[in-house]
Task: inverse folding
């Protein structure tokens, strides 16, 4: 008797969690297809005649398309730089002993513990001082502060799992340090590098707070534009939801496609 | 100077000394085996020769050149690792070519050497496979092939057979011996398996706790072990040890006393080490030198149990002083627990060691 009951409770728990996690997502997507009247109906309507009006509206809005391009540029540049800078750092952390290694490692992990809002104002002041407000560069730099640790963290773990014998065999084969990194560690660490690149891209793509604080007009990213609809005298829920869906959908599809690798990336280092 | 020479080599990791002043020499074409228990420093010593570890003191010479501070790749050595250390993302051909590609050798030359090595090792049909598509034995051949292609001055083997099953280990052992004969190359081989050491080596270096216990041919180590450690390590089953007393001394013999001998036994001396009357002495007897047949000397033992190995049997018996002895006899002998056993031996086959464990 206890077993079916336990299983039932387990299923119920899972269902509640799923509803909790997915309902906002469902509400956003379904709202993006509702006409204005259905959107504002109270009580809410569950069955409605879908419309693509909001999508047509945002497609016509150059602000949105520019913002999507900006998001693409910032997220791609950040990811590229995070991988280019992070993988050699991860190799060094995985294979060499040097002074301050433990502190550096702690720093990489611990800067995920600081709430971004704490740093928003100082970062804003710094960026203004340096004349970097509303540039790609400032977003890429600030995003690197949290994507670089992700790359270093995941890749260090991946590189540590590569048997040291391979490096020694390569050294005996005449490979220099860079050859070892380039020809042995990078190809063998590819799964971890790919996972960390995916995370970097998703985090950069979704980031709102710094984009909101550090951009004005030229390089506003998609999440910023979505929230910008909220200002003014009306709340165009349809446009906001359609933009939100457009932002989230590609990343969600991508994440579902590579979910197996992502779970592997998340559990890297959890077991030895 | 010898082809490979180690001169007072020391290796420390922090305060811990792993290799403690090792000197040895190997001639060109010689097969030298480093043998010893786990943690004795034999792999570290090999890695010092390869240049994968830096020596803390002392020098390494290869082919007349001091290579102590020379990069591993420039030492002219190739190593076969215990784990094979094949590059998993490369095909067998790419694995074998890697070293020559690093040295920027011309492509036709690389291809020629790979084809030749593959022919010798009979792995021609595996050249386009990845390491994960190979069996343990095939991987081992590829690892050896990768070493051959580099045409090194010295081949280094770090416990290359320990990941293989018993049957394959036997085959590969023969193959390595054959390769040594074919190439006439200098080979240094690390193992903890004394059967591999005895069958492969021209010379064995027995190591313990970072020090050389004895260097010699397999026969020398077997016939004249320098101390109880070497005596116990070389030979299978292990040598039996009894603790007796020196009853008297002659010019070329020692008279010893032990309750199992039933009086005094005259044993010819093997080494010129001084010993005094009444001093304790360790009596070493190899299991295969004991017999149930008639012999010049006898031990009175109490039987314990027997292990049947097919062609031979191993009998276990206790001396009156409590030590357990192993007796290896042909055929299928059995022994009852507590049964009185008269075990024969030739006093000339007895090894004697002083209280410090050194041969006398």
Result:
């Amino acid at each position: 008797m206890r077993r079916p009951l336990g299983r039932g409770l387990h299923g119920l728990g899972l269902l509640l969690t799923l509803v909790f996690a997915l309902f906002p997502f469902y509400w956003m997507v379904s709202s993006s297809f509702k006409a204005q009247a259905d959107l504002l109906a109270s009580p809410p309507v569950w069955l409605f005649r879908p419309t693509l009006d909001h999508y047509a509206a945002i497609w016509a809005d150059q602000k949105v398309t520019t913002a999507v391009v900006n998001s693409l540029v910032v997220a791609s540049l950040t990811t590229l730089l995070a991988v280019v800078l992070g993988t050699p750092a991860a190799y060094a952390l995985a294979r060499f002993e040097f002074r301050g290694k433990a502190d550096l490692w702690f720093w990489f992990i611990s800067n995920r513990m600081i709430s971004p809002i704490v740093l928003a104002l100082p970062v804003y002041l710094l960026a203004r001082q340096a004349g970097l407000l509303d540039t790609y560069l400032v977003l890429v730099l600030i995003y690197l502060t949290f994507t670089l640790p992700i790359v270093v963290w995941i890749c260090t773990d991946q590189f540590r799992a590569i048997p040291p014998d391979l490096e020694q065999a390569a050294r005996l084969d005449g490979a220099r340090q860079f050859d070892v990194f380039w020809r042995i560690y990078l190809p063998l660490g590819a799964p971890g590098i790919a996972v960390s690149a995916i995370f970097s891209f998703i985090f950069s793509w979704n980031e709102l707070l710094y984009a909101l604080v550090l951009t004005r007009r030229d390089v506003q990213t998609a999440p910023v534009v979505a929230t910008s609809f909220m200002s003014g005298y009306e709340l165009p829920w349809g446009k906001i939801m359609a933009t939100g869906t457009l932002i989230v959908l590609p990343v969600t599809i991508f994440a579902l496609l590579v979910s197996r690798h992502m779970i592997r990336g998340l559990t890297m280092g959890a077991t030895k | 100077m010898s082809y490979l020479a180690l001169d007072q080599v020391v290796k420390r990791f922090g305060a811990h000394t792993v290799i403690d002043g090792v000197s040895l020499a190997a001639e060109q074409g010689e097969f030298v085996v480093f043998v010893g228990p786990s943690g004795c420093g034999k792999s570290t010593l090999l890695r010092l020769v390869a240049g994968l570890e830096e020596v803390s003191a002392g020098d390494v010479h290869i082919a007349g050149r001091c290579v102590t501070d020379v990069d591993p790749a420039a030492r002219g050595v190739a190593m076969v690792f215990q784990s094979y250390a094949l590059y998993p993302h490369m095909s067998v051909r790419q694995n074998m070519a890697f070293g020559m590609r690093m040295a920027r050798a011309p492509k036709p030359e690389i291809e020629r050497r790979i084809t030749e090595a593959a022919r010798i090792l009979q792995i021609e049909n595996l050249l386009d496979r990845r390491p994960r598509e190979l069996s343990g034995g095939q991987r081992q051949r590829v690892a050896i092939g990768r070493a051959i292609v580099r045409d090194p001055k010295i081949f280094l083997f770090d416990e290359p057979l320990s990941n293989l099953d018993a049957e394959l280990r036997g085959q590969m052992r023969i193959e390595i011996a054959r390769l040594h004969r074919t190439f006439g190359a200098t080979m240094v081989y690390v193992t903890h398996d004394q059967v591999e050491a005895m069958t492969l080596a021209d010379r064995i270096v027995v190591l313990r706790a970072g020090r050389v216990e004895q260097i010699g041919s397999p026969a020398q180590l077997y016939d004249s072990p320098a101390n109880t450690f070497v005596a116990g390590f070389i030979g299978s089953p292990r040598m039996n040890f009894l603790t007796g007393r020196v009853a008297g001394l002659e010019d070329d013999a020692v008279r010893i006393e032990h309750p199992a001998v039933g009086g005094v036994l005259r044993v010819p001396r093997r080494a010129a080490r001084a010993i005094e009357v009444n001093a304790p002495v360790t009596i070493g007897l190899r299991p295969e030198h004991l017999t149930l047949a008639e012999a010049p000397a006898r031990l009175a033992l109490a039987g314990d149990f027997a292990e049947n190995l097919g062609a031979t049997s191993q009998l276990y018996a206790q001396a009156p002083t409590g030590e357990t002895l192993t007796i290896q006899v042909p055929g299928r002998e059995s022994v009852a627990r507590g049964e009185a056993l008269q075990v024969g031996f030739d006093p000339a086959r007895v090894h004697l060691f002083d209280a410090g464990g050194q041969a006398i």
